[in-house]
Structure formats: structure tokens, C-alpha cells
Write the C-alpha cells for this entry.
Amino acid sequence: MARAGSPNRPRIHGAYHPVAGWAVAAGVTIAVMNRVDAHTHLFPPSQRDARAEIAGRDHTFGEMYGTPEAKMATLAELLAALDAAGIQHAVAAGFAFTNERDIEEQNSYLLEARRCARGRVAALATVNPASPGWERLARKALDLGAAGFGELRPHNQGWDPLGPAGRALGGLARDAGAVLLWHVSEPVGHGYPGKEGGISPVELCRVATEFSQVKMVGAHLGGGLAYYLQMPEVKAAIENVYFDTAAVTLLYDDQSVARLVDLAGPGRVIFGSDYPLLSPRRQLQRLLGQLPGDVAKQVCGGNAERLFRITTTHD
Ligand SMILES: [Zn+2]
């Protein structure tokens, strides 16, 4: 692997082949490994400044971000964290706000961040299919370049992922080729702010089966859904589901990602830190130390590049 001249982008003089992922420098072929942190969260400074006020009207936001100790990051801070980690790209989501005003403010910032980051950041827009104007906001976000929607918290927002609202979102995602990132609530284990209110592994299995053309990511190792890939009919039904590693160190033991790769295959596991909750640098180094090189290449970059259609530009 090339030693990066700058922390945010491998600097290689010579030709780069974007598909094969190798570069030729002075007659030597050097493998380039693009890294993607596929689960991060951003907020506009205006929402960080209004934290207490928003916490007063949005119960789940209050639970997760009500105290000043709960970190809220801006684009500049995300890019600095990526640089420090030697990560080229991120997929940024916001928060599953309830009301449309907060969602619109959030999406405007995420899509502006995507534009300003010039290819380094893919954006997932916030939606609330329980609110009357959600579809207009969702289409507007797609028109402005959102790669999909998330991190989805259906039960916090009060809609049923298996009901009419979930079907409307699934249909829109299918027609637009949009990715859905779900917060998956583990049905067991310790509690933490924001644990409840996502989708359950059972619901995710059903939604993914019904909308098999829609690519979906089950956050936080999919809440255990991958275990059931050992059932042939489940394995065949949810080939469209990927599993990210967000917050893994707060939830699972040291072997969990390697086991997930065994269950789901290296092409379906995606590195995500849950920044700013956790450090992308530490989370990435941990995975690189645990996974064989060819597996790490897919998990820590290649899979997310394909899924979110991240295009790389090299100097
Ligand atoms: Zn989550």
C-alpha cells in the first residue's frame, strides 16, 4: 500500500486506475485502498446552538443529544477526523427529527456539506414518513444529490416500517435507487440513549424481503439479523441487506466483526464509526488489526464505495 503523502488522500504521481484500484508510479504498481467511514452524523451549527430548544420539542433528540456532553459535529470537524484517520470518504447522516422544519434545516446542511466536500462526503437525508409533507422533502433531497435516507428510526417518529408509510418509503427508494440506512434496535442487552425506536431485526428482515430491489444497511451489525443468514431461505431473501459496524465497541466483543464477516460474507459488511460518538481513527485501526488484508479492503472501503456510488479522484 502506498504511504499517503497527505493524510486525506493517497498522493501518488503517475496513473491511477479507478476501477482496478491500483496506481502505477515509476513503473511500480501500488495498491490503493480507499477508506470510507459509512456511518457518521452531522448537524448544522444552528442546530447545535439550538440544542436545548430542539430537545424540548423532540423527545428522541432530547434523549440522545439533550446534554452538552453528547457530541454534535459539523462538516469541518468530520473532515478533520477523517484526515486524522487517513480516511478518504464518509457517508453522513443527520438525526431522525420529528418535525419538518428541523428536517429541512438538517437536509439543507447535509446536502450543502456534500457539495462543499467535493466528493469526500455522501449524504443520507432525513425523512419522517409519518409527517404529511415528507415525500416532497424526500424528493427534493434526492434531486440535490442525497444517496438515500437514514439513519431511520421509524418507531421514534411513529410510523410502521411494515405499514403504509414504510411501503411508501420503500417504493420511493426502489424507484430512485436510494439506499436506506436503518438504526436497528437490539432486542436484548444493555440500554443506551437511542437504543429503542429503530427497526427490529425481524422487521428489517420483512422489509428487506418485501423491497428486495432496495439496498439497505442494518446499522450496528444489524441487531443480530445476520445470525439468521444461516437459514437458507433468509439468506436468499435478504441479499440486499448490508451490515455496518457503527458503535461496535460499545455493544459487542472483539470477535464480533470477524464473526459477522463469516456469516454475511466480506462483501456485505461495511465499516462505520458512528462519529462523533466514536473516533473513526481508533475504530478503523481496530478493524484493520482484526481482519485479513483482502477482507479489510472490502469492509473498510470497497463495499461502501460501490453501495453509495462514491467516486474517487486522485491527484
Ligand atoms: Zn444508530
About this structure: Confidence is low (pLDDT under 50) at residues 1-30. The chain has two domains: 1-32, 35-307. The two ends are 16 Å apart (CA to CA). The pocket of zinc ion is lined by residues 151, 183, 219-220, 246 (CB under 6 Å).
